[in-house]
Amino acid sequence: MSLPIFFYPEPASVNELVQLPEETSKHIVQVLRMDAGEHLQLADGKGNQHLVIIAEPHKKKCIVKVLSTTTVPAPARKISIAISLLKNASRFEWFMEKATEIGVSAIIPLICDRTEKQHFKKERFENILVSAMMQSQQGWLPVLHQPLQYEQLFRMEDTILAKQKFIAHCEENRKESLRSAVDFHQSSQLILIGPEGDFTPLEIKLALDHHFTPVTLGDTRLRAETAGVVAATLLCIH
Amino acid sequence: MSLPIFFYPEPASVNELVQLPEETSKHIVQVLRMDAGEHLQLADGKGNQHLVIIAEPHKKKCIVKVLSTTTVPAPARKISIAISLLKNASRFEWFMEKATEIGVSAIIPLICDRTEKQHFKKERFENILVSAMMQSQQGWLPVLHQPLQYEQLFRMEDTILAKQKFIAHCEENRKESLRSAVDFHQSSQLILIGPEGDFTPLEIKLALDHHFTPVTLGDTRLRAETAGVVAATLLCIH
């Protein structure tokens, strides 16, 4: 079924009448020129997809009626990428788009010792995640956390609960390859990716003290956002 | 050693005096303000790295003397990515940059049935590959082929010689996962990535007739450039 589909994060029940936001209404009525009686879909980013019928084709307050809902379960494995904010915002945005396409469950922006800029625009970044989720036809929107100071990461519930925890760094230490370290039978993985100048030895030590496994992402020196996408690939794609 | 390093593709022997291009000379003399007697490095993209000393710090025609050369062998495994040109040139450029960082040996732009634009700028694209190679501290520049019509690909020597050949597509057919299909003991792999609208059934058939293995790159629908980076990761990074 390739009906037009729009992001609508609010809960919606069958037979309920829903008034869509202005942006979405405009797209449906003015751009697609859809009319009363026509069908479209709404996705809430939490696995639910509603088949709806247009009741009132208002260009700012389009009203639809929910006919049915299908639900896809959350991905069996939950992959979280904690990655330093980057000096170049578009590189960080590129990472978020790609990580979402690949299927990560959570993105945790970090503020590390060598993080150069704390460039973070919550709404803009959320829109990038939504577009990437819709583009790749997935049902679940990755959670985008507020930026955290590096040390705070170790007190987060998600960190404590992750079944496998990895830190990727470029220091000359014993490291396993992430590819062989990941266990697809474990239900959750978390990996830490540092800023352009890498993690400091103290930051690496803190992760090791919290039982993180130091890993390598191959033989070449990757940019931070590339490391993020490579890690997402090696953790999500089997 | 973190001396400044510059791309210089011409052959150069020990004790030879080399005149550097204008762009490079300007950077050395005006931007870095280096002087006679100082050292820097030149990389030729074919595994050679020369340690040189500045003889004449001319801002357009800087002259250096080659002191010594170290050579790194070509990567043991040769990974080639044949990928459709994309409508959005900057997405294709992102792909090339990331594929180079990850370590591919060759990029073959394809013109497929559903390729929307044949946007290809040889010099600009080569510069992207050079920058990415230098950034990731590698010795070997990926070969960037001229764009090929899809059918011509099967007559290329590189295609015929590749030990493992894959085609990634989204059609509903039996496919192996690339992750499990790749054999790291084989010395060369080639993968085909289609345009935004995927390969046509005829194009897929042609590849299968030439003994390409159809593969999947995971469960989600990836953009073409994302598929390229995911494939590069799964083929290069062990």
Q: What does the overall shape of chain A look like?
A: elongated
Uncertain runs of chain A are none
Task: Assign the CATH superfamily of the largest domain in chain A.
Answer: SPOUT methyltransferase, trefoil knot domain
Give me the secondary-structure category of chain A.
Answer: alpha/beta
Q: Using CB atoms under 8 Å apart, which protein chain pair has the greatest interface?
A: A-B, 27 and 27 residues
Overall tally of domains of chain A: 2
Largest sheet of chain A: 8 strands, parallel
Describe the structure.
Chain A has 238 residues and is of the alpha/beta class. The first copy, chain A, folds into two domains: 5-71, Hypothetical PUA domain-like, domain 1 (Ribosomal Protein L25, Chain P, Beta Barrel), CATH 2.40.240; 78-236, Alpha/beta knot, CATH 3.40.1280.10. In chain A, 29% of the residues lie in helices and 26% in strands. In chain A, the strands form two sheets. In chain A, strands 6, 7, 8, 9, 10, 11, 12 and 13 form an eight-stranded parallel sheet that branches. In chain A, helix 3 (122-135) links the parallel strand 7 (106-111) and strand 8. Chain A is elongated. The mean pLDDT of chain A is 95.
Topology:
Two copies of one chain form a homodimer.
Chain A: E1 5-7, E2 17-19, H1 22-31, E3 39-43, E4 48-56, E5 63-71, E6 78-84, H2 89-102, E7 106-111, H3 122-135, E8 143-144, E9 148-149, H4 157-161, E10 164-168, E11 176-177, H5 178-181, E12 188-193, H6 201-209, E13 213-216, H7 224-236
Parallel strand pairs in A: 1-3, 6-7, 6-12, 7-8, 7-9, 10-12, 10-13, 11-13
Antiparallel strand pairs in A: 2-5, 3-4, 4-5
